[in-house]
């Protein structure tokens, strides 16, 4: 796998010979069906986090009631939930820090 295949960048010589279908579209004419928007990705991530947390709670409650004896599965689901929450918290903190940096920029 090359960097060109990851980024989709054309080599410098290929920029002059690129067909119209390979050239990037102007800013206002991008195809929005190609990839989900940032808000959609963020919404799905929050839903996945909520699902993982509720699943961990259900597994812990089932273990406490004696319905399952698999403590390892309960602990793993709680760790997955905890790591997901920590990731969400760090992403929020980074976004808030970037917002504060932008707001403090001189105009």
From TrEMBL:
Statement: the UniProt record of this protein carries the keyword rRNA-binding: no
Subcellular location, principal: other
Keywords noted in UniProt: Bacterial flagellum, Cell projection, Cilium, Flagellum
Tagged with keyword Kinase: no
Stretches the record annotates as Disordered: 1-38
Secretion signal span: none
A GO CC term assigned to this protein in UniProt: bacterial-type flagellum basal body
Biased composition (Polar residues): 18-32
GO biological process, any: bacterial-type flagellum-dependent cell motility
Protein's cellular compartments: Bacterial flagellum basal body
InterPro entries to which the protein is assigned, alphabetical: FliE
Gene Ontology MF terms: cytoskeletal motor activity; structural molecule activity
UniProt record similarity statement: Belongs to the FliE family.
Name used for this protein in its record: Flagellar hook-basal body complex protein FliE
Gene name for this UniProt entry: fliE
């Amino acid at each position: 796998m090359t960097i060109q295949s990851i980024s989709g960048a054309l080599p410098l010589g290929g920029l002059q010979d690129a067909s119209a279908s390979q050239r990037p579209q102007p800013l206002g004419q991008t195809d929005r069906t190609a990839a989900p928007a940032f808000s959609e990705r963020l919404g799905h991530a929050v839903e996945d986090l909520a699902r993982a947390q509720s699943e961990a709670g259900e597994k812990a409650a089932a273990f406490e009631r004696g319905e399952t004896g698999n403590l390892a599965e309960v602990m793993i689901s709680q760790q997955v939930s905890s790591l997901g929450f920590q990731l969400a918290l760090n992403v929020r903190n980074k976004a808030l820090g970037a917002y504060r940096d932008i707001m403090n920029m001189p105009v």
